[in-house]
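Help! Submission page says 'invalid entity' but I think these are all valid:
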Amino acid sequence: MLVVACVKQVPDTTQVEVDPTTGTLKREGVPFIMNPFDIHALEESLRLKDRYGLRAVVVSMGPPSTEVTLRKALALGADEAVLLSDRAFGGADTLATSLVLAEAIRRLDEREEVAVVVCGRQTIDGDTAQVGPGIATRLGYSQLTLVDRIDEVDLRARKVRARRKVGGWHETVEAPLPAMIAVVREINRPRYPTVPRRLMAEEATIALWNNEVMKLDENKIGLKGSATQVRRIFSPERAKGEILGDGLSNPEEAAHLLIGKLIEKDILYL
Amino acid sequence: MTEEKRVKKPRGVARLIPGKCIACGARCQSACPKDAIEMNEKGEPIILVEKCISCRKCLKVCPADALEIYFTPEERKILAEMEARAKAAAAEAEKMSAEEAALLAKLKEYRGVWVFVEQIAGEPAEVSWELLGVGADLARTLGVELCSVVIGDKVEGLCYESFAYGATKSYLIDDPVFHYYRTEPYYKAICYLVEKYKPEIMLMGATGLGRDLAGAVATKLQTGLTADCTGLAIGENRNLLQTRPAFGGNIMATILTERTRPQMATVRPHVMPMPKKDPSRRGEIVRESVPIREDDIAVKVLEVIDERKAGEVDVAAAEVIVSGGRGMCAKENFSILQELADELGGVVGCSRGAVEAGWMPAERQVGQTGKTVRPKLYIACGISGAIQHLVGMQQSDIIVAINRDRHAPIFEVANYGIVGDVLEVVPALTNRIRELRAKEGTGGHRG
Amino acid sequence: MSSNAIIFAIVFLAAMALFAWSSFRRFRLVALGRPEDRFSDLLKRLGGMLVYAFAQRRVLSRPFGLNHFVLFWCFLILFLANTEFLFGGLFPDYVSLSRLPDGAYHTLAFIFDVVSALALLAVVVAFIRRAAFASPHIGGLSRDAVTILSLVAILMIAFFGLHGGKIALGSEPAAYMPVSGFVAGAFFSGASAGSLAGYINFFWWLHAIVLLGFLNYLPYSKHMHILTAVPNCFFRNLSRVKILPREEFKKGNTFGVGQVNEFTWKGLFDSYSCTECGRCSDACPATFTGKPLDPRLVIHDIKMNLLKNGPLIARKKTPVLPLIGDDKEGSIAEEVLWECTTCGACVEVCPVFIEHFPRIIDMRRYLVEMHAKFPEELLTLFDNMEQRSNPWGIAPAERVKWAVDIEVKPFEADKTEYLFFVGCAGAFDARTRRTTVALAQILEASGVSWGILGRDELCCGDSLRRLGNEFVFDNMARENIKLFADRGIKKVITQCPHCYSTLKNDYRQYGAELEVIHHSELIAHLIQEGRLKLDGAGDLGRVVFHDSCYLGRHNMIYEAPRKVITSATGQEPTEMARHHAKSFCCGAGGGRMWMEEPIGKHINVARVEEALEKDPETICVCCPYCMIMFEDGLKDKGVTEKVKVLDLAEVAARALK
């Protein structure tokens, strides 16, 4: 049986800068990395592999350069990597993305039964947290988001028991397999690749599934299949740091000013 | 032969405006009908001039306006001459195609602004009321009703509460099967209501529950969903202009859902202002039921633990952190941080210095060798801001620094700074909050 | 004595055979190690062997070394006497000192006699020292020590018994053997010829048996160093900087050392050469501050592991005792390996040139590269280094933010002479940025042609290499070297000893021939040339100077920073108790900067306390890590108001005219 991790390659947003005069993004030299949330999803899939002897497959949709991220996943311990890449997949929003990923998982399932799909909570470039639920809905899998602990996967009874972290609450949920589990970062501490695995991953074959393989309706994928369109992009206003009052001679006044600011910014409620 | 032909209209070629591409994910390449665009490793387009037919499809889809059509000076001259003639032709092209007309007709069937009222065990999430506030503005602009959607077990009261916050109609599904939140029955219930009553806008809180639900609903309805909006307005063709941060907050994007309905958006708590509550307002309750039985639902909630009562402190997950460093001078002084944190509904963290001094346990440490945190509010007290600490907290939404040393590096990352003695400033903060609350007669933080 | 000679011949042959067999069993295990060339530059090696092994220079660097020096030379001289003794025993009719011409015979007899007395005296002194004054790491009167000292003492006593008897009997002249003559007079004066012959026979056999016994005891004790120390000095690492060789990242290779035979033969030979003198333990910052790491034990544990597993490995069987593990399962506990700061103090003090910390890095490589096992805190470091080429994971654009109030030019090939390699701390750490600015001011003031790489600068990778993450270091090194080549960079100024040493020494393994200059050298040079005029930075008070490990011990730069301080302040810096080659680490090297220090006293606090003993107002450092560690240490002691830490560049910049 398979455990499938969905990962995305994203620009390292912490290295993105906005040109203060033109308001455009300066992306020069900004590297692409595996979405930090997805590293935890991959790690959890590898732990399920170690715990239950599942075969770990990692799937990613993106341009051909996504191969780098998939090789990293192989270096960390995934058994197989599938790259979903086609011009027709480009420009997709979460709706169109979840279709391609869901169809890829369906194809994997035809070959070998899928028990669990693990996704990261969200991506750092899009921040939507929508792809995981999209996949679950399309495939009719149990949907468990915000999972911070997988207690047990019972392959025989076809059940999974996991803990979800919702606001200030924790709830333990039992759901039938197959399940889509979207994990939070606190769920695990990712492993580090060993050198022999890195070397192995460098030479490994990565399956490329383009739309000739996938045969999806072109009107439902990529830009055409996207329900949302980005209309305009602009740079946000940035608050500059300010020193409030004179805290040395008049701490009360400084405190009043700060509390005022926090109330104004909707950070503090009375 | 060619000379006798009419002067051909110069078409130019598409070209990238340097520095503007945001590597959105190859929208231009995907839009190009002639495969004239390759992507480089940075995710920027390379236009194959010989293939480009200057159809401008790439320009249209580019969210960053990073592409333009380039003409040589001679071409520009010819263009100017032809422009007059072109104007006449353009008027004709205004005619709407049959296909678009059909789409518009379909979209017209959807009317109304809906807000999903989120609740856990009957306790509503405040974000729902905030959404009613912004929803009212949208409904007014569109000239439609503002409706709340209440789903749960014995939750009729929330319908009345939603009226108090501005809804005029409330769709209510009240059934024990909805006692716990589970994705499947909830999304099915909402889809049922949407298919029946066809709203044009559906808003939900970008909470754990809201995100879980919205993703499933939008997929099932095959419509657009925009997460974490910070701004909502109505644009042309009654489209919802959804503004949200992208690329880790480095840029803002305005997103439209033009061809499908409802237009779905989620908004984070505390982003929209809370509307005034008016308990005298009334509205219409539309009671609905969906044929979902407990036996049909395979997902079971086995146990619910309220962590807020368990006393477990998780610095990484806290929304407010009051952190102390060596500048706190002594272990006992951390009690004043705890008092402030209690007032703010937060937890106490610390720098490596405080752990090394033995004042705080290592699991509270924020920084390179401790935890990386991203709270809404981070108050650094007596922390100089060594780089090891900064990398662990500089992603916080609002950073407040309190330190005696005006030149401490912590002020470089702080939104608000107070130069002063933490032992004086921190109690002053706590007292001020208590004082204001006493005046308002309120008990504490909400949410 | 012909029947005696036959019996002795049998005993002798048996003893020699046993010794040869034991030695073979021991030394063939060394051959299990990986190959390594330690035969280059033979003259230099021989020279070093004379200075360090025969002249015992390092042994003598500590007061008690004199006793060992005496004993060592006594042994060398008595080696001649004992050879004569053994062959005299085998061929009594042919071999005897007395067959030499009188002059030579009498001289030798005198020397042997006096030297034996000296040896006996040295043994007594050693006994007393071990019993009363031994440092905690030397082990006091251990069984091994008592055995060997007793054997030597008995050997000497037997010598005097034998020769005293012979003198009393009149078969040897008393005049040339004063001590034996005294023994003859004191113990054998009234004895009959018959009983004298009995005594002589007894002492002769006692001497013979103890001598052969001693020889056979050697291979089984720490006194194996008698056989290995001299060659170990010969085979020493000739370069100052102890960097490990590169690894070849090919599929099927293993990386680092996880099994004892994966050390090079020299690594194994080192373990046989350890005398357990404990000097490395005394010098080690980890041992000193109460951590489980003790470099002496690491070497000892390698030896014990080799003795246990070596014979199995030689027979192609699986080793039974893991080299690395927790203290019950393996020879060397995993945690111990992460406590090393690679400060090099152990290597510096070792009288026989054992290389301790490189073996630790060998094992770190194994843990990181083969098993991805390392302290939790390092995961962030490793990821940041690989993804963003700096330890904190800060965006490269921030690299130029230090230069807000100062104009900086990018490095341009053929136009700019020096690249100022700012370094990650220099670019990102708020405190170190002040050093960067100070150095930039100095460069400007002295008209040096310099430029920076700005956001294109990459981390040198020092921490990764010391932590054993050779794979990522290898990538970073190659990337940096390519960048330097592409930009036409030949001369580099660094403000960080770690960047300095990495660029200068480690990158040489990649064929990079950069002229790397640490700012201390550069500033000293600029002052000397008259290009930089300093005017006495009067407000610094008493300045103590701290030698950074990677500047001092690793790269032998001791005087340049002191000269700069003298020029800048008008007075020589005050020295701490441990300085120059004996300087004590700040605690941040070897990747320790990125780890917690849960056990024992904090190394930086220990060093700060040492500095505070001199009652300074300013502590001058030459390294961003030292800066951070000292500032933290001063905060810990609560004396930041009284004492400040300044980098050498800041000291110099304050004195700019």
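Support: the input was valid. A stray whitespace character was the problem, and the output above is from the cleaned input. Chain C touches chain A through 23 residues (CB under 8 Å).
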